[in-house]
Known about the structure:
The chain is α+β, with helices and mostly antiparallel strands. It has helices spanning 2-25, 39-44; strands spanning 48-52, 56-62, 71-76, 79-86, 104-111, 122-126, 129-135.
Amino acid sequence: xxxRWNDIDRMFTAMDLLQSRxxxxxxxxxxxxVMPAGWGVTESGPRTNLYDAGDHFEVKVEVAGLAxxxxxxxxxxxxxxxxxxxxxxxxxxxxxHRVERGTTSFTRSFTLPADVNADKVKATLLxxxxxxxxxxxxxxxxxxxxxx
Length: 148
């Protein structure tokens, strides 16, 4: 019986030692973490909202700093893929002292609730906000059924 208490006591001693070591490690943890430029975009991609407007979906994507030539949008059925690349914007010959908006790329993909008519999709880019109007395919639109 005493042997088991000694085992438990040693286990708690080991846990106390581990906790004291962890307490020494975590206060210094953030000092050594280096975040590459543009990490926020590559980590999770640009923030996106998807709305259902009845006859079409509307997707709004925050793509600040990207030109329309930097974006690539693909759609097939109910699968939407948006990708983009932001290039360095420092003029040639300049020396950068601080770069928080560095080169980065992202890819986001979504499964939409219904198929989309890809021929009628409209995309606009205004003030860093990409807006996609995605008309639902005729088969995906709600239909009124008459009861006989």
